[in-house]
Structure formats: C-alpha cells, structure tokens
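FAQ
Q: What does a multi-component entry look like?
A: The components come first, one per line:
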Amino acid sequence: MKLLLVQVTRNKQGKPSRVQQTLIADSVRVGRGSDCKLFLPDPRVSLYHALIVRRDDDVFFMEAVGGTLMLAGAMERVIKLAPGQKILLGSFELNILPPEGEHELGIAWELKERMEDDLAAVKSHVRAGLPNTWMSKRKLSWAAALPILVAFLAWPTLNALQPSAIRSAKAKAALTADEAWDPGPLSSAHQGFARDCAQCHTVAFQHTKNAACETCHRAIEWHFARDTQAAVAMHKAVFEPAGSPTKCASCHRDHKGPMGLVRKDSQLCTGCHADLKSRVATTASPNITDFGKDHPPFRLAMRVPGKSGDATVVRVPQKAGSRGEQSNLKFPHEVHLAKRGVRGANGLVVMDCATCHVPDESGARFKPVTMKAHCQDCHSLEFEPTAPTRQVPHGSVDDVLESVSEFYAQAVLSDRPIDVVFQEGARRPGERLSMAEPAKRLAALAWANQKADAISQELMEVRLCILCHEISRVSTANGTRAGTNSTRSWKVEPVAITQRWFPKSRFPHVQHKLSACKECHDKTNSKSSADISIPDIKKCQSCHAGNEPKSGTVRGTCGTCHDFHLKEAKSNRSAAHPVNTPRNPTAHAEKVAVRQ
Amino acid sequence: MRHRTFLAYRQYRYLKASVLVVVVTTLIYFSTQFPLGHYGGTGLGYVLGTIAAGLIVWLMWLGIQKRRYAANNGDLKGWLSAHVYLGTTLIVIATLHTGFQVGLNVHTLAYVLMLLVIFSGFFGVYAYTRYPALITKNLGEDTLTSLLMKIADTDKQIKVLALSASDEINRHAMRAVTDTRIGGGVIAQFRHRPRNCPTRLAAEYLEEGGRSLKSSELHLNRELFALMLHKQKLVDAARSDIRYKAMLDVWLYFHVPASCALLAALTAHVVSVFFYW
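Then the predicted structure of the entire assembly, as tokens:
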C-alpha cells in the first residue's frame, strides 16, 4: 500500500506547516520506537503503539498493540479507518485523509499536547514553604484569639451589663458567663451565690461595696463602742478617713478557698496599733507590734462596788488586781480541794476542779457553778433538826423567812410531833387545836412567830447563810414583816463572780485542755474567794511566741486572742455590760445563765 | 566559620539583664510576706503582673517591629536577642505573679498560653541554631532553584534515554519524571522520604530489572539507573531543604497564633480583674 504521511507543526501564532512523506509498506508500525514507520517521538507514546494494516481490498485498519487508541472519546482496540476520523494516540492526533492521487490512504499527524518546558514541568510538582500551604499565621491567629475574646471577654462583659434580675436567673444555668473569671473558690459561707458575681461585685470597675456585705451582715459589731460623741468622732477619724468608710474587703478577701476570710495575721492589727498614738492622739491603748515583744501586761476587769449598791467595771493592771475580787461570796478553795476530802452528808467528798467547773457546750468556757448542782449536796439548807427533809429555798431573804415562819405556824397548828411544840405547852401530843379555842390558837401563833424569828436569825447570822454570803441586819421598811411581829430582816449582798477577767480577748479552754488546770489556776492554797488566780502574760508567753514562731513555742498573733469586731462595741454598752453580771439572789440566780 | 549567634549578642547583654531581673524579682518575692500569702492581688502581685503584661505586649510589638526592621540586620539581632531572653524571664515573673496559684479560669488560661508561647519560642531558638547549618550543609553550592534545574536537566536525559527503553521501563521512567512531587502540603513538606516516590520506585525497578535483561538492553538500563539515582539524590536534597526550612518556620505557626491567643486571654484577664475589683 502507498501511504501519505503529513506531519503538521505549528508556529507560535498557531499557523500550521506541513511536511509530507510517502510510505510504501504492507503494514505500518506506529510508536516512538526508532523502527516505527510512523515515528511519534513522545514519551507518552508506546514504543510500539499500534499497527496499520490493510485487509482484503481497500479496507485499512489500525490495531492497538502497546498503547491505546481513542476515537471520538472512546477507547478502541481496532479502528476501521475512514476519512475524516480523528484518532488520539497518546499525545498525538492522527487525522485520516481521503485517498488522494496514487496514495491509498493519507494520515496527517500533529502533536496536540506539547510537553511543557522541562524546568517548568519540574517546578509544577514542587511546592515549598509553609506559606504556600493552607497554613496562615494571620488566620490561625484569629482562629486562636477570637474564641477567647468572645468566650472570656465579650460574653462575661455583656452579661455583666444586663439587669441583675436577668443575671441572677442566668446564674442557675449549667455554664455561666463569668465562671471563667472566678479567680478562686469562695469561702464556704459565700458559696451559695458563687455563680452570681454581681451579688457582691455590684458596680463594675469598683471595689466591692460595704453595702453588699451588709445586705447579709447587718448586725456586725464595731471595733470599739461608739457610745459617746468622742467615740463616734474617733471612729470616723480612724475608719472613715476622707469620708469613705474602710472597706470590709480590705481585710476580708474572698476567693481564697473555703477556709474562710477572717485574717489571723498580726498585720491586720499592727497596721494601726503599732503606732496607734500617732493615729488617735487621745487613745489610752499603748502601741503594740508583737505579742512576744511589746504586749502590755494583762488588765483584769475588776468590779468596783459603788456607794449606792451598783458597781462599775474597771480594767486594772494585773498586779493592782491583787487587792482581790469582791464577789460577796465566801468560798475558800483550799477547804474544798483538801486532798483527804471534805465531810459531806454521806461521808468524805474528794473534789477537784472539774467537780464544779464543767465546760460549756462550746468548750471555750465553763457552765456557771450553781448552789443546787454543786453546793447543796453538802451545804444542806435544812433548818429544823426534827424535819431533816425540809430546807429553806435558796432564794430571796423574804422567801427564806416566809418559808421558816410558815413551817412553824403549820407545825404548831397541825399535829406534827415536833418536840418544841410539846415543850412549850401549846398543845399536848395528839391534841388538835380547834376553832373553838382562839386563845390557844393565838398562843400557838405567837410561839410560831417567835420560833421562826429565832431560827431565821440563826440561819442568817450563825449557821447557814452567813457561811457563804455577806449578810447584814436591816429593819423592814414597813414595820413588822408580813404575818409576824418581827421588825428584823437581813440583806444578802448580791453575788457577783467575775465571769470574764479579760473581756477583750478570747481564751478557748478546750484548746488548752492538755494542760492541767492548776498550771494556770493554782487554787489549792487559796483561803479566800478574794484570791484571783488568773495567769499573767508571762504564763501565756511561755507557750506562745509572737508573730514569728520560736522553737518550742507556737505563734501568738493578735488574732490568736483578739477579735476585730468586738461584741461589746455592738451598741451602747452602758445598758448591760457583759463583763460582770451581779447574780441577784432575789431572782433565783441558779436559773439565770451567766452571760459570757 | 561560625558567625556569632543572636544569643551572644553584645557579650550576652540581654542574658545578663534577664538573669538580673529574675534574681531581683525572686529575691523580692521570697523576702516579702503578705497576710493572705502571695497572689496576683497583692502589691507585689500587681507590680509583677504589670511588668509581665508590659513585657508580653512589648515582645509582641517586637515581633511586628522585627518585620519592619528586617532590612537592618544589626538591629534585628539585638531585637531577637532581647526577645528571647526577656521572653524567658516571663516564666519567672508571671509565675511569681500567680503566687503559684492556678485554677480552671481565664487567668490560668493566660498563664498556660504564655508558657506555650515561650516554650514554642524555645523550639524556635533550637531551630534557629540547628537548621540553618543543616540547610547549608545539605545544599552545598546549590540553591533550591539550581537543584530543580538540575532535576529538570536529569529529567530531560531520562526522557531521551527512556524513549528507547522498553514500555515498562519507559512507564516507570516517565512516572519518575512527571509524578515526582517535591514538597507539597503541610505534612508532605515534612516528609523526608515519601512512600511511593516515583523516582525511588523507578530506581528500584531499574535495579531489579537490570538483573534479567539482555545485554543489548543492559547498557541502556544501566545508564537510566545511574540517571535515576542521580535524580533521587537531587530530589532528596530538595526535599531536605524544604523540610529544614519548614522546621525553621513551622513553630512560628504555633508561636504567633498562640501569642495572639495569649494577648486575647491577657486582655480578658486584666479586664475581669478590674471589672470585678
């Protein structure tokens, strides 16, 4: 067969130029192999890609050998060649031409897809440098910063600007806006509103207001009483400088954990008290910086009886207090603490401190010692030997006298076999005084009054009351006492045992229970109730160092013993001073709990 | 010859300054006492916090400044030296500011982000001291572009030679020429020897096929094999170059966004502290 091969190339403008070649062969190999008649020099063409053969008469076929043939988008193994066909063979396009002249078949071939420039080809497969990837510092930065700004700045800020009712409602949600702003756990007492910051932080960009604290802490005590104008002025000068009150938060910092927000450090106090005199010129308090160094001697709260029967409390240095307590009670500890015991109703009773001094529920102090609970077992108030079960009440003088007088009147009128009745001849044993014998009855009453008067005097002045109480004889104001013809009566001085010697400090006994009582209060040789057995500062300092701990001692900061908010400062203290409460025998003192 | 690094700038001027800052703040911290212990809200806490926040903002500003002064090489070294050393002091200053108190909140978030920024910066310092030397050593006299030109040249030779090779060999050779990718996406840029690299596969095929070839084809095969090994060496070098440069660069894609996140958290921290004072 005779073939016309036309190679088409194009210049830059796309203008084609043709190179023609006539080929005579039985079959024509197509490929990039050098032995191929139709030589297609391109790597994408197979070495021996296809074969053109003539079958029978004038029919030409192209058969795929090592490569593929594409005709009108379809892959073919064998193509019956016809003029007008465009066959893709690798990167070449073969155009089948109609027979022309002596040529039985014409094929025009053209490289359709040029191989790129080599360096450009290599470069097209190279991507270097992270900026050429999806990564972008700018985008990543926004992606990292924006969520933080939204979640931790915008959301809480916008939330805080909403009305408090809405905020409080939102505080119940599982996740609150300003949770992430919480710098630390609140104290236990405040955890109830931990999720609603605005409960305390009422105004943005301002310190917590005292009013927020006082919403709940209404009755907080002051640092000192403001019962005089001078005290009020002093309070203003010290705690409201420049008209703005000292912030609660300046001492009470929350978000410091559940252990509470009461400062125990000395700085709290020494901030002012180290140089108090320069701050408050009129103060009587000395400057103090450290319990271990310059704490003044303790002062005892002494009760000083006044002329008109009332008493004032004066704090005096401990040494001056040695003149003794004026409690109006006679109680020699020595007798009661005797090692061999004290003779009681049922034999010897051996007592120690705990027999009478029982810790109260808090363990800080002691329950009041009462006649009924602690004394009366031995100190029976019986008055008539023939009636040992009868006792006078431990109450007012009038109650005692009345009780005695009633007893003897009743005895003389009834058939009680009281010897004295018989002896006086008022009636014989077994004899009843009837209404029909008024003279006898009057005689009996006279006897009873006389007897009662004598017994009362004996109780008051000799045998019973005088043992513990300060008794003086008085005349009744309105003539004879009711129901008697006696004008005698007695006055019992009210017992006023000092309950708090150091009203401005705390001393929790329970925390010191490892020490024996007598290490601080040695009463074994105390013959008088005037003796004061309160340890002095040296005793405390033997265990408590100052602000800095020392070997063998524990720290003793101001807060160890003192409170800032003093209870006595709560209101005008003149009304009822809690230091010493006179125990008034006329009011059943046993039942009156002694104020701490 | 090893040139002086930014770390030793002006006889370690900023190292000395930083050590001084750390020692002084630590001494002050441990010689002062506060009623509620150390935390951000004490007087010292506020001072340390202000210093730390100021440093953070200044160091970030430095990052922007560094770009502006990029032309001025001498200054750049000083900026960088200060950036590294003073940035490191933040670990101490900010930790003392916290008073060693942490929690699940925006405050600790800022602190943690700051540590992340600093430690990613440490990787940067490591990268700056390690990879430039490796890059130089790897490239030798070349540059990445010259390597690529050499690869293109080799490709050309491979293509010519492969025209006469068998179809199978040609296919491998052509794939090595057309499909060998260098660098690429984020992960690809860190790959030293990607699996299924066509050049490597072609070289292996040529090596394997070379044993069962007729002597006429053997010569061609050997020549192709030699070319392919040469190309592989060039490709490896180009890939290493890309990888080293990516290592030199990649930490910044953490360092910078983390810094921005830190700035955001720091802002939230400061605002929140004074919002609920």
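Q: Is there any commentary attached?
A: Sometimes. For this entry: Chain B touches chain A through 69 residues (CB under 8 Å).
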